[in-house]
Amino acid sequence: MSARQPAPAATGTPDSVQASETAAENRPARKSARPSARPRGRWTRSRILLAPGRLRSLVRRSEGGLVLLATVVGCISGLAVSAMTWVTQALREALYHLPAGTRLSAADAVAPPLLLIGPCLGGVLLGLLIVAANYIRGPRKRPAIDPIEANALHGGRMSLRDSLYLALQNVISNGSGASVGLEAGYTQLASGLASRLGIAFEVRRGDLRTLVGCGAAGAIAAGFGAPLAGAFYAFELIIGTYTIATLAPVVIAALCGNLVSRALIHTQPLVDLGDMQAVTTSHITSLEILPSLALGLICALLGILIMRGVTLVERLVQASGLPRAAGPAFGGLCVGALALIATPQVLSGGHGALHMHFAAEGQGHGAAVLAGLFAAKATATAISIGSGFRGGLFFASLFLGAIAGKLFATLAPDILPAMAGFGLTPLAYAVIGMSALAVAIIGGPLTMTFLALEITGSLPITGLVLAAVIASSLTVRKIFGYSFATWRFHLRGESIRSPHDVGWIRSLTVGRLMRRDVPTAALDTPLPTFLRAHPLGSPSRVIAVDGQGRYAGIVNVPEAHAAAQDAVDGATPVLADLLHHTDLFLTPEMNAKDAAATFDRSESEALAVVQSAASRQVLGLLTESHTLKRYSEELDRQRRAMAGEST
Fold first, then answer.
1. I want to staple 412 with a disulfide (CB 3.0 to 4.6 A). Which of 134, 419, 484, 553 is the partner?
2. Residues near 356 by Cβ (< 8 Å), separated by ≥ 6?
C-alpha cells in the first residue's frame, strides 16, 4: 500500500455502513440509557454547532466573508473583555470594601487585615475551584492550550471549555489581589471563542489561525484602548507574521474590540501625560537615543531576572510538597504580607498604581523608594504566578518597566553627570522603560512601540522607544532566547519559539509517509534462494529480519546479484555480509524533518521503519526522495497559505 493511501478503516465500507443502518431501522426499538444518535445537521459528532451551509461556503470562498467573521470576533472580544473587567472590579470592590471605580493598587484606605487576608481568600477560592474541576473532569494530563501554542501546533484549534476555565481562574486571581494581569485571560477567552467560531464555519487551517489572532487583537485593543497595539500583538505574538491576507481581518477585529469595550465600560487611558512638556524639556535630538539604548539593555537584564525568578518560585513550591490546590492560598498570604509591609501598589495588575506614577502626585519619589517598589512588585508577581495563581505578566511588566525608567532617570545623572544634559524627563524614561521591559518579557517590539505611540501621540518619543525595544529584544534573544510564554513551553519540554505554524511538520510523520508493502527475507536465507525470490527488476531493497522477526538490516538486490557473480568457488557470501544500516532506522512517530536529518546523517537513500528501538519490529520502508518531496510540497502549501494565495 502506498504511503499516501491510509489503511482501510475497520468499520467497513460506506455500503456496509448503510446496510447496517438500514437493518438497524428495521429492528424493533429497544430502550437504552444512552441518548439517541443525532444526525450531523448543524451538530458534528463532537457536539459543535455548525453554521448554515451557505454561510460556511461564503466564508470559505471569499476574503470578504472572512473579514465579516473577523468583525464578529472583534465585537465578541470586546464583550468578553468588558465582562471580565466588570466582574473583576466588582470582586475587588466587594473583597476590599473599595469605593466604586477605585483601583486596588491605588487605594490608600484599605484596612490592613483585608490587605493581608484578601489575596489568601482568593487563593482558597482558586484552590477550591481546582479541586472541583479535578473532581468533575479528572486531573488534567497536560496544560490547556493557549493561543500561541494553538497556532504553532494545532492549526488554531482551542478548547472553549478550557478557555472559560482559565478565564475564570484569571478573574479570581486578579480580583482577589494577586499580582497578575488580566491580559492572559482576555486573550485566552477571546481567542477560544474565535477558534470555536472558526470551527463552526469549518474554515481552513490558515484562516482559523488568523481568527485566533483576531480574537487576541480585539482583546488587547479592548483592554488597553490601543487598536494598533492590539493588531500588532496578533501579528507578532499570535500569528507570527504580517501579511496582506491577515491585515484587514486583524485590524478590523482590533478596531471593533476597542469600540465595543469603550461603549460598554468607561476606562481611564493607560497613561495620561497631558502635554509634551511632561516628557521633554527641550527639542529631542538624535543624542537622546544613547540613554534610550542604555535603558533598553538594563530592562533586558531585568526581564530575564524576573522570568528566572518566576521559575525559581515554581520549583520551590513544587519541592515543598505543597498540594497544588493549596499553593495559591499560601502564595496569596505571602503577597498580602508584602502589601501590608511594603505598599498596596504590589496588588493586582497595577493599573491604578501606574496611573499614580504618571500623575503629578506620583512624582518626586527617591531612588530608594522606587527600588523598593520595583523589588516588592517583582517579588509579588513571581510569588503569585509561581504559587499557582492564573494570569500573565503583560501589565506587571509595563508597571515594572515604568518604575525602572524613573529609577534610571533618578540614578543615571549621579553616575554619569552628562546624562543631565538630555532633554527627557523621568516620565519619558518611564514610557521608554515600560516598553523595553515589556518587550523583554512578553516580546513584540512593534506592539510595544505602537502602544507607546498611542499613549504619547509623539513620534519623537516613539522613535526612542523603538531604539530601546530593539536593544532589549536583541539582548534577550542573545542571552536568554525566550519570551515568558515560550520559556514556559521550554520548561514543559516543548520546542516552540514562536507562533509560526509547525504543527503540520509534526503531523507529517514517518508513519504517514512510509510504504508498508515492503519485501522481507529471513537473515538465514541462503543467497541462491534469495536471488531466485528477488531477481533483477524486482524491488531493489529487501529488509532482512532475524529469527524473531526483528530488523537486521537492508539488502540491496542488485548488489546481492553482483556479489554472487563475483564470488569465487566455495566462497558464496551470505546475507549477513550484505546488510546495510543494521543500526540505523526510523520510527513511525518521527516527523519528516527529523527523518530528513537521519537520511542526511546516514547518507542513505532509504531506511527501514520499525515499531521502536526496543522491539525492532519492521513496519515499512521510507525513501529520502519521497520524504523531501512531501516536505517541499507542504512547505510550499504553507507559504501560499500565509501569503493568501491558497484556493
1. 419
2. 106, 345, 362
